């Protein structure tokens, strides 16, 4: 499925201000993860401002990030740490979420701007390159046997996971780059295989 940000914003309301949250809500509904009268327990390993969760009021969120931003949606628990640090907080995560997460989410900083300076100081190893962040998220989803929400520039299929639902999203910022081979970003819900 393909969706443009302007079409999502035409729906009005919260979708006008937070179109990516409406995309995530539609994906979660399509995967059968939004259930009435049941909280969705989320481990978000690259939290940012929490934009994805604005339209999902019953999400119980444990957030990891290397910095704290001005949140749009406040998580239940927050750890100022890189994505891979979740391994050290398994019991704290399950206590905060009152059980294992239903969903592990990742939206790593996949823009290439500024990465050369970051690599020069070795911060990719300390805080996590895109590959480190994705590996940590996939490992967490496997550990908890949870669904995986991914937002990336390109399609990503980790071994041992099946895509449940996906969409290609055209943000307004990419309208200027329609001449590029792929101006879309990719959102998906994946499920670990029961091999």
Task: Explain what you see.
With 195 residues, the chain is of the alpha/beta class. Helix content is 28%, strand content 24%. The chain is built from 7 helices and 8 strands, in the order E-H-H-H-E-E-E-H-E-H-H-H-E-E-E. It has an 8-stranded mixed sheet with strand order 1-7-8-6-5-2-3-4, sandwiched between helices. The chain is globular and about 40 Å long. The model is unreliable at 113-124 (pLDDT under 50).
Query: Helical element count?
Result: 7
Number of strands: 8
Proportion of β residues? 15-25%
Please tell me how large the radius of gyration is.
16 Å
Mean pLDDT: 87
Distance between the termini: 28 Å
**SSE string:** EHHHEEEHEHHHEEE
Q: Which oligomeric form is depicted? A: single chain
- The neighbouring-strand order within the major sheet is 1-7-8-6-5-2-3-4
Portion in helices? 25-40%
Q: Which regions contain 5 or more consecutive residues with pLDDT less than 50?
A: 113-124
User: How would you sum up the global shape?
Assistant: globular
Major beta sheet, specifics?
Answer: 8 strands, mixed
Q: Please identify the structural class as seen in this structure.
A: alpha/beta
């Amino acid at each position: 499925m393909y969706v443009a940000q302007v079409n999502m914003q035409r729906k009005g309301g919260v979708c006008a201000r937070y179109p990516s949250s409406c995309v995530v809500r539609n994906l979660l509904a399509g995967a059968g993860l939004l259930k009435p009268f049941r909280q969705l327990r989320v481990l978000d390993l690259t939290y940012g401002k929490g934009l994805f969760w604005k339209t999902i009021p019953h999400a119980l969120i444990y957030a990891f990030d290397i910095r704290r931003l001005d949140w749009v949606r406040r998580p239940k628990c927050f750890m100022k740490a890189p994505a891979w640090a979740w391994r050290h907080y398994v019991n704290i995560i399950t206590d905060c979420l009152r059980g294992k997460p239903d969903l592990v989410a990742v939206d790593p900083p996949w823009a290439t701007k500024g990465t050369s300076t970051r690599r020069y100081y070795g911060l990719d190893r300390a805080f996590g390159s895109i590959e480190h962040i994705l590996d940590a998220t996939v490992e967490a989803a496997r550990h908890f046997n949870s669904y995986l929400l991914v937002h990336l520039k390109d399609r990503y299929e980790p071994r041992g996971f099946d895509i449940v639902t996906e969409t290609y999203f055209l943000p307004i910022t990419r309208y200027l780059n329609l001449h590029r081979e792929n101006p879309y970003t990719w959102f998906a819900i994946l499920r670990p295989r029961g091999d």
